[in-house]
Amino acid sequence: MIKILKKTIIVLLIFLLTGCSQGRESSQKQSTTPSSFSITFLSVGQADAAVVACDGHYAMIDCGSESVQENGFSSYKVDLFLEQEGITSFDYIFCSHYDEDHYAGFADILDGRKIGKAYGPSGINDIDVQSLNRFKNALSDQHKKIKTPKVGESFDLGSSTIKVVAVDSNQSIRNRNDSSLVLLVTYGETKFLFTGDAESKTETTMINGKISIKCDVLKVAHHGSPTSTSESFLAKAKPTYAILTVAPDRDLPNGVVFDRLEAQDSIEKIFRTDETGNITCKSDGKNITIYNTDGVQINE
Fold it and tell me: 222 by DSSP, 3-state: which?
């Protein structure tokens, strides 16, 4: 009886030690799983649409189309990208402001895709146009409403963060562009600044604000309009790369803005969606690699 008891105790000890070891190994494997991060600026004409992906979590910043009336929704391009990437839900969607080229595709991509939370400037319910009503109805179908965040508010997306730099400036009543929700996406030491269509007065607010706007990648505001991207703003942001979301054969980007971008010493390269197609930025937390639609690196 004593021998059987001893054997039982030995077996139990071996089982416990082995189980603990496997538990530690499993924990170690989980903790060493590499993180992943990318931002894709989609080529949807003279409109903004970007997907942020981090550790299996997703956010969309704007979802516009070039011209709803003339060319129909360009969101089919977004849908194709989302299907290829296997993206079926979003933790967050952000609408920088309520111009069609920033929201017109949201209603389509939300059909069959769940969202966690939706953010944008205030005033959405004061605008009664068909295309925006489609977006509002798509949100309502998921029992969601646009919430307006505060400056300085942050949102976790996997191991990255999205911080609100500006929203609803004092100029918003007179100028919808200057109500733009401006976001700073941070992954490790790398930073990406989304400016919507913010113009010079909001840029001044950001320059004088407490939140740093220094970034590695700048989504140039308002498709290269000269009312945005002032010299003083660029000097404060000091981007390494500038990305223009534009369509071919249009009057934007403006040559004045190109001069400002080229004069900024920190900028190494300027990219345009009408030349490269989709632009995908990948980061390991320290270094950024940028690819065109064909998967060719373009920032070497």
Answer: helix
Residue 66 phi/psi, 5° resolution? -65, -50
How confident is the model over 3-48, as pLDDT tens digits? 444 444 444 444 444 444 444 333 333 334 567 999 999 999 889 9
Per the structure block, which two tokens stand in for 100? 């069609």
pTM: 0.85
Spatial CA neighbour of 106 closest among 80, 69, 79? 79
Radius of gyration of the chain (CA): 23
Tokens matching residue 42: 């989609």
40-72 pLDDT tens trace = 999 998 899 999 999 999 999 999 875 434 444
Phi/psi-derived region of residue 56, left when phi > 0, alpha when psi is between -120 and 50, beta in every other case: left
Q: Which residues pair with 57 in a beta bridge?
A: 54
Structure tokens at 176: 């919808």
Could you tell me which residues come within 8 angstroms of residue 5 by beta carbon, excluding any fewer than 6 positions away?
none
